[in-house]
């Protein structure tokens, strides 16, 4: 396997959080289709002050460039998905990287899983241009930061000891830290909300910091 193929395989492994896979896949753009509204999630939650602040600033500044966007609130382990016009389309709990932190360790996207220790399993804060891509042509995922192997995908339940579904549905955000950095969401939320919003286009993912200041992470927002 050449270097590029090896890197793709590692990215895929991270996206699937340790499910075995023989090869990787590049992110792909879906064929453009007319915009359709995603069905609102049946899961509701009150946005935190930081989520409200960023959502308001995005609408005011037009920072989403006319695209749908998702705000990830790491402190409360929740995702809030918005249509291009700023209307909230749904919210759901998320699973995040095991380690708390806002900055990717150096070279994280190039490392094999065996070289990513618990302290390096971070979901880095920032603004990302995201697009749907395919996992081996079978499962679609949302690539958030391809170079850093960061994606948002349906919750992976293949390793029973991780208890990911239980962690996802528990009322506390404290047990939602389990992944190598990727963002796990309920399958229904991905299928009914995230996928329709990003189908045929790119969008924005804002991952809020848990240690740094909002203005340090999003200096372009008013």
Fold blueprint:
Blueprint: H1 3-15, H2 49-61, E1 69-73, E2 78-82, E3 88-93, E4 96-97, E5 126-135, E6 139-145, E7 150-154, H3 164-169, E8 177-179, E9 183-185, H4 187-198, E10 203-207, H5 214-217
Parallel strand pairs: 1-10, 4-8, 7-9
Antiparallel strand pairs: 1-2, 2-3, 5-6, 5-10, 6-7
CATH class: Mainly Beta
Superfamily at the CATH H level?
L,D-transpeptidase catalytic domain-like
Strand content: 15-25%
Supply Rg. 16 Å
Overall mean pLDDT stands at 82
- Contiguous uncertain segments of 5+ residues: 1-42
* Total DSSP helices: 5
Largest sheet, strands/sense/barrel: 8 strands, mixed
CATH architecture: Beta Barrel
**Percentage of residues assigned to helices:** 10-25%
Return the structural class.
Answer: alpha/beta
End-to-end distance: 47 Å
Strand order of the largest sheet: 3-2-1-10-5-6-7-9
Q: What is the count of β-strands?
A: 10
Give the CA-based shape: globular
Order of helices and strands: HHEEEEEEEHEEHEH
Question: How many domain regions?
Answer: 1
CATH topology: L,D-transpeptidase catalytic domain-like
Describe this structure in words.
This protein is of the alpha/beta class and 222 residues long. A hairpin with a 4-residue loop joins β6 (139-145) and β7. The chain starts with a helix and ends in a 5-residue tail after the last helix. The radius of gyration is 16 Å and the shape is globular. Strands 3-2-1-10-5-6-7-9 form an 8-stranded mixed beta sheet, with helices on both faces. The chain has a two-stranded parallel ribbon with strand order 4-8. Helices cover 22% and strands 23% of the residues. The longest helix is centred in the N-terminal third of the chain and has 13 residues, at 3-15. The chain contains 5 helices and 10 strands, in the order ααβββββββαββαβα. It has one domain: L,D-transpeptidase catalytic domain-like (Beta Barrel), CATH 2.40.440.
């Amino acid at each position: 396997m050449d270097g590029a193929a090896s890197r793709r395989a590692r990215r895929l492994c991270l996206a699937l959080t340790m499910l075995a896979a023989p090869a990787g896949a590049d992110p792909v753009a879906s064929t453009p289709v007319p915009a359709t509204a995603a069905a609102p999630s049946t899961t509701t939650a009150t946005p935190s002050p930081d989520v409200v602040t960023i959502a308001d600033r995005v609408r005011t500044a037009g920072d989403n460039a006319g695209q749908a966007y998702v705000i990830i609130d790491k402190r409360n382990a929740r995702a809030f998905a918005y249509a291009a016009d700023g209307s909230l389309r749904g919210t759901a709990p998320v699973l995040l990287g095991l380690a708390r932190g806002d900055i990717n360790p150096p070279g994280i996207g190039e490392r094999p899983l065996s070289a990513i220790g618990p302290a390096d399993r971070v979901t880095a804060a920032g603004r990302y241009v995201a697009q749907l891509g395919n996992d081996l042509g079978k499962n679609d995922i949302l690539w958030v930061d391809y170079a850093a192997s960061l994606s948002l995908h349906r919750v992976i339940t293949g390793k029973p000891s991780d208890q990911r579904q239980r962690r996802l549905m528990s009322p506390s955000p404290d047990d939602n830290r389990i992944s190598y950095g990727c963002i796990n969401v309920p399958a229904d939320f991905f299928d009914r909300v995230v996928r329709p919003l990003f189908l045929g286009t790119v969008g924005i993912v804002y991952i809020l910091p848990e240690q740094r200041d909002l203005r340090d992470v999003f200096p372009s927002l008013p």
